[in-house]
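WARN  no MSA supplied for this record, continuing single-sequence
INFO  ligand: magnesium ion
INFO  echoing inputs
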Amino acid sequence: MLSWLWQFVKPYRLRLSIALLALIITAALTLSMGQGIRLMVDQGFSAQSREGLACALSLFGVIIFFTSIGAYFRFYMVSWIGERVVADIRIKLYEHLVGLTPSFFEDNLAGEIQSRVTTDTTLLQTVIGSSFSFALRNSLTFIGGLSLMFISNIKLTLIVLIVVPVIIFPLIYFGRKVKKLSRDSQDKIATVGAWAGESLQHIKVVQAFTREDTVNQQFAQAAEGAFEVALKRIQQRAILIALVMLLVMGSVAGMLYVGGSDVLAGKLSAGELSAFVFYAIMVAGSLAAVTEVYGEVQRAAGAAERIRELLSTQPEISTPKDSLPLKERLNEPSSQALVSFKDVSYTYPSRPKHKAIEGLTLDIKEGEHIALVGPSGAGKSTLFDLLLRFRDPQQGQIQINGLPLDQANLQELRSQYALVPQQPVLFSSSVLDNLRYGCPGATDEQVKAAAKSAHIDEFINQLPQGYDSFLGEQGVKLSGGQKQRLAIARAILRDPKILLLDEATSALDAQSEHHVQQALNELMKGRTTIIIAHRLATVAHVDRIVVFDNGQLVDIGNHQALLKSSPLYSRLAQLQFNVAV
Ligand SMILES: Nc1ncnc2c1ncn2[C@@H]1O[C@H](COP(=O)(O)OP(=O)(O)OP(=O)(O)O)[C@@H](O)[C@H]1O
Ligand SMILES: [Mg+2]
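INFO  complex generated
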């Protein structure tokens, strides 16, 4: 774990050196207090001299003064590094997550991953920002104190040292256990967090189905589970701490008996024994402190491991090393179809036996308007995922202007599209920010023009803060239709090469649908558009309608032709227009 962490600490070597220097100096000064005690006892008390006492105490005062200054630097620098490094790790982790393929988040709960970014990194921060320096300081005190003990009295030192091997073994044994339990406990906490997040987000559904009690129970169960694992960990640590305490203090008591006898026999001065006891207590204290921190370091190691795991998850889909330029290619006139599917099949890994798209071959010309229709689950949205390269087909190839998608720069590819998804997605910020999402550089005028085209401008102006109004998490403060019109305005603003509309007008009333349809017609003019629609009235005038069923293209043609030639299409039309065809 340390070598992994080092890459994050390395940039701050200078500060680390200052911190280490302060650490060493304060440790040395703390130890030198032992000499102050010896002087105080021998020259002050034993010699019954006031001057001796005053002299020893002033030496003491100087030591304390410099120790405090050292402590300031040590604490400040070490905490600084801890905070900084954790901020760096968080940033890097988030950056990494944002680049992962969407399917990763289908298999892993978003709330759980969130907990990695917050809880696990916080744990690391405790270790880097305090425990680590605490451990180092105590290790230094331990080594220095032990050396001084040896120098001043070998016999007494050996008595104290008898216990060391006895302590080391349980330390390692329990340490391992704690690490494992800590990982479990962090996992449990992450699950609890994910749970709470999901149910709170969908609170209306929870309450509408009166599931409060069940949700409470399930949450309580998860929380209790986390508590139980934590309890096991605490037990291990408690045993460890008590054991170390008993052994260390026992050996100090033994040493006091032997040393006290020596003083009585005149073989040792009272000051020397006092200094020795001081060192022994320091050494024992630091050993106890190290063992206590050791458990914490083990916990952090568990956290670090999980963060590392996440960081090493490679995105399934990324820009290839030798990617070909797409933009120039799109600007050149070409005889090829703009988008072409060549025998494309896709199967969701979680449903290996079911082909969501099967053997699809389709050419879409520049400027063409294509509608995808078909029953629910036919694979229409999946097709958009393939176009956007959220997934790669297992078989066949998709090309844009003859360039296979998987050879293009990913960002360049995606910037050719504007997507209006099946469920409009809004972020918890202002109307303006949400509209600008696909085109951050747009001026206020451009944003307003787009809003006007999508027939949402009037509504926005009625909001208390107009375009600066806050939309709430996921746009909860808007109606379904308003959200959809905002999503359309966002797409209009992006001015894309290819427009992808997934049921873009599903949540609109008849009147606003009419308005939006006009806006869309404006937007679609001369622009390649693929539109998924259940309501055939909205797509009757597109160039070609592609009828999908069960992942397969079953029919293709315009409205009139399909009514005659396609049984599926005419059935759909019949159901919707409520007329016999
Ligand atoms: N993430 C996923 N993992 C596994 N299977 C999926 C996933 N998403 C969709 N599917 C399955 O793939 C098939 C096609 O789904 P898709 O969302 O493309 O349908 P659709 O035509 O858009 O339907 P709708 O009109 O209801 O939106 C469905 O059978 C669906 O259950
Ligand atoms: Mg769909």
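The chain has a mean pLDDT of 86.
INFO  checksum written, moving to next record
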